[in-house]
Amino acid sequence: MNILDIRLRASYGLRQAPRVAWYLAHGYAMGQLRQLAEAQDPDAARPRKASRPTPDRDRLWRDLAGLFARDLANVEAGIYPMPSDHDGSLPDRIDRSRAFFLDLPEIFKRRKSEAHQEVLNDDFREKFPRYYLQNFHYQSGGYLTEGSAKLYDLQVEVLFNGTANAMRRQALVPIHDALKGRDQRKVALADIACGTGRFLRLVSDAFPGLRPTGIDLSPTYIEEARRHLKRRRTRLMVANAEALPLADNSQDVVTTIFLYHELPPKVRRIVAAEFARVLKPGGLLVFIDSLQLGDVEDYDGLLELFPSGFHEPFYESYTREDLTALFGEAGLEPVSSRTAFVSKVMAFRKPERDLL
Predict the structure, then answer these.
(1) Fold annotation for 181-349
(2) Is this model's pTM higher than 0.90 or not?
């Protein structure tokens, strides 16, 4: 190993280790506060036990470390640049942390009473599909308030022990392979359910010639994405993935990150057909979402427990969904599939036109 390799690895470690520690500390504090709240509540339900195997703590740490080792290897291979995770300035991080902990009692109350319909009101009912009007994860505001958009990324990183961005970056690998030798300025990429724009920023860092499009159903999340992506060449739109405001055969790459486990089975198929419609012949769909049953030995118990601790009404059916068959029904052919800690990364291609 030469001095440049040593410096690169040291730089990677100095960037990622404090970040992971920050989110782990939040997760630990959240767990302690939850235990305290449950100890003071005689009516608190006992934690549910999984009927399937679950990984022990050592296994989880090994697999977490394996994700970061792969992330570093991708940097060393030149697939994408050294990660620069933009979590905000220190005052901004402290402000979000404070808001996160102040909101926890409300989340604990919702979890205890299974209150997950707070955003189901007459105003929102007219603007959004019924399945979307949920307090997913029992979070305040569902996906429809400015406060929710502000806290979402911190909440997700706490949930995943600081690995959310590292998992998202694995979607850059099939995109890198697809763009080899191509003029990025002429490539159209759309990220569907882009949320607050974290993946779009990773795309812009890795492929600066692109001008990607981000589409999300939540106006407040799109506004948060605008703030996060300011001064970047990105187009953002509010729209439903069931009816994308994109022309037929217009996109070279479509990406979707952590969307499908929050869609009902029927809607998953509608959205898959939309992906196929807007992709150019030969275009690539890159998909990241949760692991599914049978993907990784000993993880099935975690997948079983997840929807009981977090309001995820469509998650269980997702874990059993045959995604290759689902996207095949839409006319997309499988290219690759691999796991990345608690997520899976899949790529599908739209066949070229029959020239005969």
Answers:
(1) Rossmann fold (3.40.50)
(2) yes
